[in-house]
Amino acid sequence: MGIVLFILIFCVVVIAHEFGHFIIAKMNGIHVVEFSVGMGPCIFSFTKGGTKYAIRLLPLGGACMFEGEDGLNLAEDESGGEPAEKSAEMKSAEKTDASPVRDTQLGKKSGAFPDAPVFVRIATVIAGPIFNFILAFFFSMIIVGSYGADMPVVTTVLEDGAAYEAGLRDGDKIVRMDGNKIHLYREISLRSMLNRGENIEVTYERDGETYQTVITPIYDEAAQRYYMGLSGVGQYVKPGFAGTLKYSAYEVGYWIETTFKSLELLIQGQVTKDDVSGPVGMAQTVNNIYNQSKPDGVFYIWLNMLNFAILLSANLGVLNLLPFPALDGGRLVFLVVEAVRGKPVPPEKEGFVHMIGMVCLMVLMVFVLYNDIAKLF
Fold first, then answer.
1. Can you tell me the distance from the alpha carbon of 376 to that of 284, in angstroms, rounded to the nearest whole number?
2. Residues 44, 54: contact at Cβ < 8 Å?
3. Rounded Cα distance, 132 and 307, in Å
């Protein structure tokens, strides 16, 4: 069941990403050659309005291919993206009347991606990640509206912990940590988990008054990490319609921050290969979430699946904005350079850079897949 749920969630997230590229391209007259979900052999397709809509065998990503591209896809999957090669069927279709007509006066193909204004191309490329954030926000509204938001109110302050020594007590509301505003209790937990023994400046409220203190986390030898001495998960409160919009934005912001923090730990070497998961590992995670939620009923299964979808969608949006070749972020770098210098980078040079990036991503994908399978045994 977990595998089925993961595939459904992943497909929804990928469709949102590709639809972002698709809708902005269509709005600006760029011809979309193919919109597909999945990778590999095509198992179902139909053509409408000159665009081929396809479902492919492997649920590992998607594609939104434009007329005039160099064959490198604008769409990426959660592991960094695999370009979809143009099939013989697609190449044949491009030569039919479904292809854009040639503007003989300008000598260019109408609707070709490279011929669109540079800022239109920038908007088209960046729309994929933005639509992932929009999807995450929509799902967050469902969760916050149904269950509420976890307010940063301390449930329990352990008497032998660092927070108690710093003056915090049960019921205090933490509003700032190290100068950063705190909106959700999970933000407190995140900063606690990432702490490496540094002092934490805390601003909190009690009985309408605001106080400031400094917490010096205590190292736990057994857990091999520092603890603030707080326990609980915060108070869940339904904040009303306006509050739901606000806290849904906080929710998305939390997952975006978590993704960036994870990348930072990865670069610093503080994350091992066992902490990294690909499709197999995420399917196993969804299966665990399903089994843990099952005793609580369908409603909680639904909410927890939505929560995972928020994490995945925000994660995909952030990763695709990284300035790495073959990702949306890598393409944005070339487009921004074009906008600044007034002319594009030679296509063959850009294509070569993206090809190298694509090879690196494919090697990474194989490694992550192998690592996922190895952890099962």
1. 9
2. yes
3. 14
C-alpha–C-alpha distance, residues 156 and 229, integer Å: 9
298 within 8 A of 91, measured Cβ to Cβ: no
Phi, psi of 153 (to 5 degrees): -100, 125
Please tell me the pTM assigned to this model.
0.83
CATH class of 149-237: mainly beta
For 140-150, how does the pLDDT look when each residue is reduced to its tens digit (9 = 90+)?
A: 999 999 989 99
pLDDT band at 97 (very low <50, low <70, confident <90, very high): very low
Tokens of 286: 């969804």
| Separation of alpha carbons 154 and 230, rounded Å | 7
Backbone angles phi, psi at 146, to 5 degrees: -90, -40
Separation CA 183–CA 177 (nearest Å): 11
First to last CA, the chain: 20
Alpha-helix residue ranges (DSSP H) falling in 268-346: 279-293, 298-320, 328-341
Q: H or E segment at 68?
A: none
Q: Which CA distances in Å does 354 have to 35, 75, 239, 359?
A: 21, 13, 46, 9
Please indicate whether residue 78 is annotated as part of the active site: no
- What are the extents of the domains in the chain? 149-237
Both structure tokens of 265: 């730990």
Mean pLDDT of 56-76: 71
Residues 37, 14: contact at Cβ < 8 Å?
A: yes
Task: Give the integer Cα–Cα distance in Å for 320 and 296.
Answer: 35
SS3 readout for 106-130: CCEECCCHHHCCHHHHHHHHHHHHH
The catalytic residue among 18, 82, 94, 187 is 18
- ∠ CA(240), CA(241), CA(244), 5° rounding? 80
Query: 278-281: long-range contacts (C-beta < 8 A, 24 or more apart)?
Result: 278/78, 278/79, 278/365, 278/368, 278/369, 278/371, 278/372, 279/6, 279/10, 279/59, 279/60, 279/78, 279/79, 279/369, 279/372, 280/369, 280/372, 280/373, 280/376, 281/368, 281/371, 281/372, 281/375
What is the H or E stretch that residue 48 is in? strand 32-48
Average pLDDT, the chain: 85
